[in-house]
Amino acid sequence: MDSKSGSGTSDQGEPSKREVGMGKVGKRKGSARSETGREPAYTVGLDIGGTKILGALLDPEGEVVGTVRRSTVHGADGLVAGAVQAVRDVVASVGVDLADLAGVGLGIPGIVDHRCGTVKHAVNLGVHDDELPLAELLSAELGGVPVVVENDLNVAAVGAAHVLERAGGERDHEDLAFLALGTGLASGLVLDGQLRRGVSGAAGEIGHIPVDPLGPECTCGQRGCLERFASGKALEAAWPSRHGKPSPVELFEAARAGDQEAIVVKDRFADATASAVRLLVLTTDVRHVVLGGGVAQLGTELLDAVQDALRKQAKASPFLGSLKLAERVRLAPTHVPVAAVGAAVLGRRS
Amino acid sequence: MDSKSGSGTSDQGEPSKREVGMGKVGKRKGSARSETGREPAYTVGLDIGGTKILGALLDPEGEVVGTVRRSTVHGADGLVAGAVQAVRDVVASVGVDLADLAGVGLGIPGIVDHRCGTVKHAVNLGVHDDELPLAELLSAELGGVPVVVENDLNVAAVGAAHVLERAGGERDHEDLAFLALGTGLASGLVLDGQLRRGVSGAAGEIGHIPVDPLGPECTCGQRGCLERFASGKALEAAWPSRHGKPSPVELFEAARAGDQEAIVVKDRFADATASAVRLLVLTTDVRHVVLGGGVAQLGTELLDAVQDALRKQAKASPFLGSLKLAERVRLAPTHVPVAAVGAAVLGRRS
């Protein structure tokens, strides 16, 4: 099963969205802050992926004041040690003390129980069947700072909402879907300002909605799943990498150069991605759909293609047209590690 | 365009889900209650449909203590007069005074602006292009009691959540999709205890998500929309009424009698409805999907068919199996007018 795989922000390719429950682990001993009840101060967020850990330090106003990047060491011990070091490095880089942290948030693929702060089945991180009490282990190493653990797509959605809101100065509620075009296809949802996890952590799992009864079989056991048309894996199958660059880059280059086959494949991919946007809006009516994941590194070329496809879809349908789908789509911010920022935001709320 | 038509609970067939904004109209003069800030007392909810108005009176504990049913009189004047009389009748029937009402909620098809309390394009009610300030007009006729107006599918979802929660004594948040198998197909969403309207009132508009590229054209201008397979209209097209009973009743009777063609049509319909359930869960991961609308009057026979179809879909997919879709589905309560109850609940929150 490849659900939620590919994920939003990192390059691991594992089931990553199922999580179970609400809470945090860790209680700082001797901290006056937790008793005073005033706004959380600095928080750190980490986005733990298959190859790298990205970290962000938020100041008390929610501004990103430091970032960090480390290679991931697989397995429980390596993960914990790497995460601890990432936290220490990012606070040290801006002269903040560990004791000034109000909380730490982690975004991680795999089956996350956010109530208990545990993760399992993060296969690309070397975490298998046993539940890893990541929040507890990390908190212990960091002097008791509260640690929350969350699914990687959920932190990406929260991070995108945070960054967009600050950039746009919007006074409305944060409201968006983070559509992760990674190896697979899945999304994270922030609705009316609240992270929507769903009762079994499966909210946003749109990659496995069948959209073509005659479509190819999916690894999930169904046929014609949306992920088979709109994902990095789907692109790689339709346009295998030939020149050492990522498949999406080669495809878009070939299309730009006028290769007719590439144009067809590109248009089909853009149409499928547009269908994912349409599906998200017709179900949740989110204000924005933010394109993220590896494929979104194509940048404005991808955005243009998806918006064109949305306008084409709306042409025959005044109803679709009235929803202004193309105007809702945007690219995930790239000037900050958005999932790490989201993890830090959740760390603030803990 | 037939979007949101058929709706959940009444028999009108009009675009009914687009609404714009949060607010209420009406301020009781001289009421001590609004100043004290204590819990709202009695509230009335009305479900205004193309042929009938259903009303419910909730006591301060949220119990349904009275109901009423009137024929709808079309056009602005008739609607307002009918609604006023329905409110007067239901409070009188249990000896409650109009002055004891903390609020009134209306559920109505058409394009509802719940911030302003207006409705337009409720064509089956004789309300056309001009915005009808329904909340204001009704409030004025009812001595200034606050009136809220809401889309009919949204009140159905809120009502179903209220009734299920009270019946089950669940301590968790209300969390469900009300899937209206009316003339058309659409849904209302209550997520984490909150009504989800969406930024343009289009949340739950799943009937117009295409699920088959080779499917029939839809009135919305797209092709292969889910509504073309899972709705009263789709059933009527596949199995026209021959003996004066509603098409779904005749179809299920014929299938029960062993008619092979009927069995095929019934199975296909159940599978399409199961697909709607799957789509709702894979996007929003709601705890329950409640089957409502005219077709749901089939009762347990429909429930069984949809649950069987869900189990069949899950057979090939451990992933789907893990989501326990069949267990999430239930029938809308029939012992109370669920949409009217939902309207009354929103009246309480006003």
TrEMBL record, chains A, B:
Sequence ranges of Polar residues compositional bias: 1-13
Pfam family name, one: ROK
Organism domain of life: Bacteria
Region (Disordered): 1-38
Family: Belongs to the ROK (NagC/XylR) family.
Protein name in UniProt: ROK family protein
Source organism of the structure: Promicromonospora umidemergens
